[in-house]
Design brief:
Helix content: 40-55%
Radius of gyration: 20 Å
EC number: 4.2.1.149
Strand order of the largest sheet: 1-2-3-4-6-8-10
Shape: globular
Enzyme class: lyase
Largest sheet: 7 strands, mixed
Domain Enoyl-CoA hydratase/isomerase: 25-353
Keywords: Hydrolase, Lyase
Protein name: Carnitinyl-CoA dehydratase
Number of strands: 10
């Protein structure tokens, strides 16, 4: 039951993560707005520490994740760190992904309601800490994507699992192209649950932070009661669903591009082909295979597979070059390993799915299905 008096909050403040219990709610606030709340290893550890502490705390009825700054929940992982660590051979790179994927798994299997406020930019690692939520709230400012092929990576943080579970071939479309979608599309394909205006969301947050709540149901109802319809005019997928399914159900990336080329004069097809021309040919092929395999796996096995894949991305793939071009030198002209998709060999793609560890020695062995 709501009360006008709230007990003093218990807060644990990390430089970039504020974890506090207030009014019966565990609040996780990402506080790195200058980097659009991109995740560092220290932030991942702070989030994991708080969630594990709250999981069995009777004073915490639900957890709410939000981002500071008004522009993003979380724009992904700290890719400049990835570049520095990869070029230096720093083992902290694999430590980062190991601990991040453990956090993703914890969120997907969390024992209490976990509510993600997906306001603003939610991309890459931001999807990993929000897609496992029991309530995913979007606003008119939401910009959602798994854009990894643009920097020579693949949709990780469980992306091969949750993209494989959206309708039709939309997962392949989003993973291969890195297309950004907004609230209406996210709701229509099951990547969000509830929409409200950013001002309405701010009002709900104020109410929740000023009250004292006795149940998760009361907390979730505050969002559901304030929900509204998104702007359908910004939907991309619904209008193109037939073409997306036809194109992105093709067996190979070459087949997808051929199907797009066959839609001559179609603006959507031409624009999609143009997006793909800028992506890593190797990683588009790897991503397509990843999502297809993801339909037949558990989340735990998918996260183990993604850690295997990440070791190859920086050793044999386009990860270092892609991040260099986008975020380090910022010349936006990556020199991919392959000039075109036709140069990518099947055995190169298959190599990404070979684990460098024996199963009993895998860093994510302990994740349960």
């Amino acid at each position: 039951m709501e009360s006008t008096v709230s007990p003093a909050p218990q807060a644990e403040v990390h430089p970039h993560v504020i974890a506090e219990v207030r009014g019966g709610i565990g609040w996780l606030t990402l506080n790195r707005p200058q980097a659009l709340n991109a995740l560092s290893l220290e932030m991942i550890r702070a989030m994991s520490h708080a969630l594990l502490a709250w999981q069995h705390d009777p004073e915490v009825h639900a957890v709410i994740l939000r981002g500071e700054g008004g522009k993003a929940l979380c724009a992904g992982g700290d890719i400049r760190f990835f570049h520095r660590a990869a070029t230096a051979g720093d083992p902290q790179l694999i430590t980062f992904f190991t601990e991040e994927y453990r956090l993703n798994h914890l969120i997907f299997s969390y024992a209490k309601p976990y509510i993600a406020l997906m306001d603003g930019v939610v991309m890459g690692g931001g999807m990993g800490i929000s897609q496992g939520a029991s309530l995913r709230v979007v606003t008119e400012r939401t910009k959602m994507a798994m854009p990894e092929t643009n920097i020579g990576l693949f949709p990780d943080v469980g992306g091969g699992w949750f993209l494989a579970r959206v309708p039709g071939s939309v997962g392949e479309y989003l993973g291969v192209t890195g297309q950004v979608i907004e609230a209406a599309d996210a709701l229509s394909i099951g990547l969000a649950d509830c929409h409200m205006g950013a001002d309405a969301l701010a009002a709900v947050v104020r109410r929740l932070r000023n009250g004292h709540w006795q149940s998760a149901g009361e907390i979730a109802a505050c969002f559901v009661d304030a929900a509204s319809a998104p702007d359908a005019s910004k939907a991309v997928i619904a209008a193109r669903r037939g073409a997306i399914d036809a194109c992105f159900s093709q067996d190979t990336v070459q087949g997808i591009l051929a199907d797009l080329a066959g839609n001559g004069g179609n603006d959507w097809a031409a624009q999609t082909a143009a997006y793909m021309a800028k992506r890593s040919p190797l990683m588009m092929a790897v991503t397509l295979e990843q999502i297809r395999r993801g339909r037949h796996t558990t989340l735990a096995d998918e996260l183990r597979r993604e850690l295997d894949m990440m070791t190859h991305v920086f050793a044999d793939g386009d990860g270092i070059e892609g991040i260099r071009a986008l975020a380090v030198d910022k010349d936006h002209t990556p020199k991919w390993k392959h000039a075109s998709i036709d140069a990518v060999r099947e055995e190169e793609v298959a190599a990404f799915f070979v684990s460098p560890w024996r199963r009993e020695q895998h860093p994510l062995l302990g994740l349960s299905d």
